Amino acid sequence: MTIKVGNDMKAYHNTGTNAAPTWVEMKQIGDVTLDLNVGEAEIDLRESTWLLNLPAKLSASINIALANNPGMTTVFDVLRTNFLARNIKQYATCNGVLATTGTEYLKLFCFISAFPWAQPTQEMSSHDMVLTPAYWEESTVLMEPTWVKTP
Fold first, then answer.
1. What is the pTM of this model?
2. Which 3-state string (H, E, C) describes the chain?
3. pLDDT tens per residue, range 52-91
4. Are 118 and 127 in contact (CB under 8 A)?
5. Cβ of 33: how many Cβ atoms within 10 Å?
6. Distance, CA of 76 to CA of 141 (rounded, Å)
7. Which residues, 6+ apart, have CB-to-CB distance to 113 below 8 Å?
8. Domains, the chain, ordered by start
9. Whose CA is closest to 110, among 147, 63, 149?
């Protein structure tokens, strides 16, 4: 695989279920940032003069600049509705086209926790939305974020 620029990456939302997904590409978006972090479990022992840590739980968020284009794109209208209704949906951020062999992506159920409207004078008007992982079950099974490689 060659080095890619962000414009070659893809982001999707799922209109189906985890078991039977229907991935829809989010095309009218700008920058996407996938934040992956490891929490820290503090170890404060008298035998050490250092405050030490151990890796704890993983966390993530996805920041997406969504072009402000109401009524002109289905994706904008769907995402705005998901925000206003506080819906939990499945999303994926990929290093290429999701259905292509070898593509890697993180898929996770999220709610849109922020939807601010940026109106800069010389750049596109956008919503710098934040997708936050959510608790979600399908058929009584917890759906945790999953790193996937398309076979």
1. 0.91
2. CCCCCHHHCEEEEECCCCCCCCEEECCCEEEEEEEEEEEEEEECCCCCCCCEEEEEEEEEEEEEEEECCCCCCHHHHHHHHHHHHCCCEEEEEECCCCCCCCCEEEEEEEEEEECCEECCCCCCCEEEEEEEECCCEECCEECCCEEEECC
3. 999 999 999 999 999 998 877 788 899 999 999 999 999 9
4. yes
5. 13
6. 30
7. 61, 130, 131, 132
8. 6-149 (4.10.410)
9. 63
Residues 128 and 140: their CA atoms lie apart, in Å, by: 33
Q: For residue 38, what are its two tokens?
A: 């490891």
